[in-house]
Amino acid sequence: MAKKQRNKIRRPGEGTYYKRPDGTWQYRVVVGVDDETGKVIRKSFYGKTDAEAREKGQAWLREQGGVRVNVSPDMKLGPWLDLWLETYKKGAMLETSYYQLEVLVKHIPERLKKKKVRDITAIELQSFMNGFTADSSKSYADKMRTLLRSSFGEARENGLTNADPTRNLKMPAKQDAPRQVYSKDEIVRIFNYAQVYRQNETSPKHRADGYLIATAIVFLLFSGLRRGELLGLMWSDLDKEMQVAHILRSVYMEDGVPTVKEFKLKTEGSLRDIPYPAILSDMVDQLPKNSMFVFGASTGRIMYPRNFSRAFSRFFESMNKEDGAIKQLSPHNCRHTFATEALKSADIRTVQTLLGHTDIKTTALYTHPDFIAKQDAVEGLLTGVFRQKKENDSLKNSTVT
């Protein structure tokens, strides 16, 4: 089990390591920056234990005379972003958040990455930001703006530019379309179809795979878990007597390999306990226990998130053919569905703790009243108004009499 405090990089030369699926440990460290290209140089070391892998890496660094960091006034944006990520962000946040920054950096066009940091103008960045926002969600565009402002702010601190072109970088007006959710009737249909999905297959493996993904989808709808949290759920996390799931970890990708670390989730609030209904407990009890993970791959290892998403899509494609049309939403929309339904019988702070949100404003974004609920609210308002009017008229008439 990886140790919580050993996943931070505070200065060049410190690394990060984790346990690989084959049981060995990998220690990955920044060993330098190329003088000519400015590219960050990384190197991996392996061992039977975390200490062995780390010692190999540190020994190699000692032999090389330490890490070479070269920050030149002529540094181009691409190499600078790599160095900024590795030095300022690696280890200062959860791996999932760091990975998202890496993905964001890939969206920055090469024409900008090939320019010297000091030559990039405010209007160029605003033009890029305008185009990026048009094709992205508001929250994703906000993250890009934050990334640009932070990286250029540090670039100025390191003498790469005299002015900060992001100082007045504006966020174009953007309003996200509301996320779709499943209605109560659709949840019932999904639950019923999950009981029969692929159960007529002649292959025992196909039947087992079908039941696993069907149970996973029902679990998402009845728990509000994130996909990574679901895939990181272990049998030891389930308290059958209390019917509670202890959420202690999440699956994330590191060097193309699905990985988990204890107590490593998206936010501090993500460490939580979630009660689950008896009908869900009955489904989970019938799953094969060939892995430490409840929803692991048939090999016994962690299921790749992309493989889960493909199996998720196949379930709904099959349901559309066999059970009639139903909209196919994403695994994350199941989380929105849970939040919307939970809010009908619980206050928003309770839903906040169930979802593992640090900020209650985030929870508010996850709740989507359906049309029937809106109609009920309007009818309730009218009923209340007319009841009050009737009482007022009655009081007025009795006074007059």
3D structure, described in words:
- This protein has 401 residues and is mainly α.
- The chain folds into 3 domains: 15-157, Tyrosine recombinase, N-terminal domain (DNA polymerase, domain 1); 184-365, hpI Integrase, Chain A (Orthogonal Bundle), CATH 1.10.443; 371-401.
- Helices cover 49% and strands 9% of the residues.
- It has helices at residues 50-64, 77-89, 95-107, 110-113, 122-134, 138-157, 184-194, 204-223, 227-231, 278-285, 305-323, 331-342, 348-355, 360-365, 371-400, and strands at residues 15-19, 25-33, 40-47, 238-239, 244-247, 252-254, 257-259, 272-275.
- Helix 8 (204-223) crosses helix 12 (331-342).
- The radius of gyration is 26 Å and the shape is globular.
- Mean pLDDT is 82; it is low at 1-13.
Give the topology string: H per helix, E per strand: EEEHHHHHHHHHEEEEEHHHHHH
Total separate domains: 3
- Can you identify the CATH class of the largest domain? Mainly Alpha
What is the assigned CATH homologous superfamily of the largest domain?
A: Intergrase catalytic core
Helical content class: 40-55%
Average pLDDT works out at 82
